[in-house]
Amino acid sequence: MTPPLARRRPLLAALMLGVTLLTALLTATACGSPSAAPGASTVKEIAVTIAGRQVTPPPGRIDVAKGQTVRITVTGDAADEAHVHGYDKAADLKPGTPATIEFVADQDGLFEVETHHSKLQLFQLVVR
What we know:
Blueprint: H1 5-31, E1 43-51, E2 54-56, E3 61-64, E4 69-76, E5 80-84, E6 89-93, E7 99-104, E8 109-115, E9 121-127
Parallel strand pairs: 1-4, 3-9
Antiparallel strand pairs: 1-2, 4-7, 5-6, 5-8, 8-9
């Protein structure tokens, strides 16, 4: 017999946290790689999870350099849409499946990144 959804939530949240931590570890390792050419544009990897309407890591500001490629990966526990205001970039969220938004940050400013249906702020992107 399938356990009730309430009993699955802690497992799903732990799984999504594990994916986020692994992504952060791999990103930190890749960004510090000595093989990157000096002055080369790096990709800013940003991973966010949503479980029980809680955003991890908690919403804050993330700085990127103008001209830098930004790759946002969002994994949620409900169907929704993640959206980057000002860039009009979006991705459909399916429960438990990572969704990616990638673009070049070519506009200066402060941009909200949020979900549309649940109205959750994921973070603010600062491009300078």
